[in-house]
Amino acid sequence: MIEVKNLTKKYGNHVAVDNLSFKIEKGQIYGFLGPNGAGKSTTMNIITGYLASTDGSVTIDGISILSDPEKAKAKVGYLPEMPPLYSEMTVREYLDFVAELKKVNKSERKAKVKEVMEKTDILDMENRLIRNLSKGYRQRVGMAQAILGNPDVLIFDEPSVGLDPKQITEVRDLIKELGKDHTVILSSHILSEVSAVCDHILILSKGKLVADGSPEELKKMMGGSVEIEITLLGSSDSAADILKDISAEAEITDCGLDESGNRKITVSSAGGEDLREKVSLKLAENKIAVIGMERKEKSLEDIFLELTDNNETVKEDK
Fold it and tell me: Which domain holds residue 74?
């Protein structure tokens, strides 16, 4: 659907996008994840034709954004982080104006505008001035303009920024619904948003693609060691020594006593082996009671922090 090859964007000596290549398949919701300055917005602006690249190519459904921009852009609906709204227009006036710009057939324009207002649940606001709308409703108007013309691809740059929790949930639900009929690309640095909505995740850091896969694939790829947290009844001073021979790959750490006087131990396996059964049997043999055992896996947040360098300040990619 979308193919990005060796994409590079430089601002003087600063490289915002660094030889980036990836493919977007039809009918899925993709998440662009990365810290501020990672190159997410710059990449989206190049894909949509709002910004020229220094090098590389972008094709949308086989059409080059460089050599045939009008035809390529017709396949994309775009919501920038700051929606391009005219505050003195009513919602309907603005969407009529957008429909005209997008060359929606005049005989179908009224019906198409109504359709996108219904999809984004803003029909009740059609005669309200945009400047009088809440931030959440303005985001919905921005999404409605992106949907107009029924493009194959929808690109949303930080669609939930500045929204309250209820509005964020509503926008997420809307994106999921739109994903049934469109290929969606969602840019965000909010981990929960990406994991809740997206089928596939691309993680960018300093203009480079550092990970590409489904949330499950990324967790598997970055799995590394598997850690088990064990809580034993009482002090159980000898438990750590007893567990040392359960596996050659096992690393046993005695974490001392918790506030209730119960021993806490962690068991890590560098090879990813699940040692819970061996641990349980070994402790049972030695008549040590287990009152808690939890297998800890890496979250998307752990993966994000491992793949991106948050300690180094980089310039915004806006």
Answer: 2-221
